[in-house]
């Protein structure tokens, strides 16, 4: 494929439809249904979501994180509290989230406000992680410049040795954020780019649903 021809790359979206009447009045139930369908369809990393944050100058940045839980209170992911994303959230809690389930021709976008999970909940989740992941959380100075990979591996090894004779403690610079949504949109790809979009907005203490133009 000539990379100059990417403008000719296109596929038609024909897998499903989305009508407001069949959506659940509760956006969390609707999300649960779509997430389950994405998992059942064996989409790669069904829980992966793009997370957009803004810095103090209003400049946005985006990266992938994994959804580790959700409830009516919000969508939860875990990270290093000294990372770029966490620093940005501390100065502006407004975030955007995007799930893309390509195999189902579906997207879910979320607008909301992020806040730290309680230490107890973060610690409980940390303890459930595989040992290697726990060591990496300790060893990573996420988002900061490091000299080289050798330096990283030495740091990891030092921590592995340090914690070899005991349970790995919870690092208080690492934990969860919960994104409490004010808007959740469900997008289903349709033929000829005439897609279905149903948006839920939290207004006056209740969720309302509307159809948006593609
Ligand atoms: C599939 C996938 C899953 C990821 N999951 C996480 C995650 O759950 N938490 C996390 O901190 N970083 C995760 N990352 C790495 C982030 O995308 C990002 O590189 C890192 O968090 C640093 O981002 P920041 O410098 O903007 O804070 C994941 C990356 C990919 C590709």
Give the helix/strand layout.
Elements: H1 27-40, E1 48-54, E2 60-66, E3 69-71, E4 74-80, H2 84-91, E5 94-101, E6 106-116, H3 119-127, H4 131-139, H5 149-162, E7 174-188, E8 196-203, E9 206-212
Antiparallel strand pairs: 1-2, 1-5, 3-4, 4-7, 5-6, 6-7, 7-8, 8-9
Helix pairs in contact: 4-5
This protein binds flavin mononucleotide.
Mean pLDDT: 97
The CATH class designation is Mainly Beta
Q: Which molecules are bound in this entry?
A: flavin mononucleotide
Order of helices and strands: HEEEEHEEHHHEEE
Number of domains: 1
Sheet having the most strands? 9 strands, antiparallel
Total of helices: 5
Tell me the span between the first and last alpha carbons: 30 Å
Q: Helix amount, in percent?
A: 25-40%
Radius of gyration: 20 Å
Number of strands: 9
The computed structural class is alpha+beta
Hey, roughly how much beta strand do the residues contain? 25-35%
CATH topology: Pnp Oxidase, Chain A
Write up what this structure looks like.
The protein has 214 residues and is of the alpha+beta class. It has one domain: Pnp Oxidase, Chain A (Roll), CATH 2.30.110. It contains 5 helices and 9 strands; from the N terminus they run αββββαββαααβββ. A hairpin with a 5-residue loop joins strand 1 and strand 2. Helix 4 crosses helix 5. The longest helix has 14 residues. The two termini are 30 Å apart. Bound molecules: flavin mononucleotide. Flavin mononucleotide binds next to strand 2, strand 4 and helix 2.
